Amino acid sequence: MGFLITYSNDPSGEYFEIREGRHVIGAGVDTDITLKGDKNVSSEHSILLFRRGLFLIRDNLSTNGTFVNGEEIVGDVSLNNYDKIKMGDTQFTLIIIEPPNENTQ
To answer: What's the CA gap between 15 and 54, in Å, rounded?
Structure first.
């Protein structure tokens, strides 16, 4: 699992839990992660996928693009711990929580 953390829209911070599956990010009311107040985010801006321990993000034909670590993405992009994701005026940091290693229990 993981978390998207942002301080862009709320100075005290916001976080969004990412569990296995597909997560639509955008300004629309039917999104899984709704970015209220960011006028530069499309209604369904990006799609974040988490499957089998891998995090992938893709831009969903948004007006202003999706960026990972400052680079505009095209197609599916694999994400790593602490990657910076920017869409509109919102910047997220991805925090990945690894399951415990059976050998260290």
So the answer is: 19
